[in-house]
Specification:
about 250 residues, about 65% helix
């Protein structure tokens, strides 16, 4: 499905190497907030330890306008506020909560797949099944073992990460666009990080929930994103491992 070793090698190089600390631009009390939005930053092949995306205001402004109907700082504040409060996960979570409860009970993979089909349709359910196989390969051995769809859904009771991650990445885009100054961008990132920590057990669970939300939200092929998540969890000096929950 994907070559985790190649992704891991690339991420090691980007973040300073597996055995050497990455160079820090910000002090730890600020850098830790960059964990929020990191997956989408890596998914765009950008440097996760920098607040600036390095792609220029014009491109970011165009993206914000086309993808989010955001034209100025006030629009962006409103969009981020929605993502961090209500967001798209509210439409997904009733089914996810039911599947979570079934997975914690005696439901097997086949029963869970049937619930996914009923909740999200055949196409999204098949995409989720493929992604879950990738997640088992990429992040299953990291932490307590994940070996089945049931294991994954037993851990994930909300897809709020889908909205948290997008809010954080929008803050980075807002900084790049000139809509936010550094202080405002970091304030959003801090709020997103604290919400992630209040909602999930660790960055692995957060990342899994984000991947599942992205598939349902965008019907996206997440192979590369899953590889990035696995590499970020395995790389010694990635942001996730430098700043674990409650550190």
């Amino acid at each position: 499905m994907f070559d985790l070793k190649n992704i891991l090698d690339s991420l090691n190089a980007m973040q300073g190497g597996a055995n050497e600390p990455a160079e820090s631009i910000f002090p730890p009390e600020k850098e830790r907030h960059l964990c929020a939005g990191m997956l989408l930053t890596l998914n765009s092949c950008l440097e996760p330890r920098e607040l600036s995306l390095g792609i220029g205001a014009e491109m970011v402004i165009s993206t914000l306008q086309s993808a989010w109907n955001v034209s100025d700082a006030d629009d962006l504040r409103q969009t981020i506020g929605i993502l961090l409060s209500d967001g798209q996960h509210l439409g997904m979570d009733p089914a996810i909560v039911a599947i979570h409860a079934a997975a914690q009970g005696d439901a097997d993979d086949e029963a869970i797949q049937e619930m996914l089909v009923e909740a999200f349709g055949e196409d999204d359910a098949e995409a989720l099944r493929a992604a879950e196989a990738g997640l088992i390969e990429a992040v299953g051995p990291l932490g307590d073992s994940l070996t089945s769809m049931r294991d994954i859904h037993a851990k994930i009771g909300t897809l709020r990460a889908w909205d948290i991650e997008r809010a954080a990445f929008n803050a980075r885009m807002g900084f790049e666009a000139g809509f936010f100054d550094e202080a405002e961008a970091f304030a959003v990132l801090e709020k997103a990080r604290l919400l992630a920590e209040a909602t999930y057990d660790n960055w692995r669970s957060y990342g899994i929930a984000f991947v599942l939300g992205r598939i349902i939200g965008y019907s996206d092929d997440c192979d590369f994103l899953i590889s990035e998540l696995g590499a970020s969890l395995e790389t010694a000096h990635s942001l996730y491992n430098t700043y674990p929950f409650d550190a």
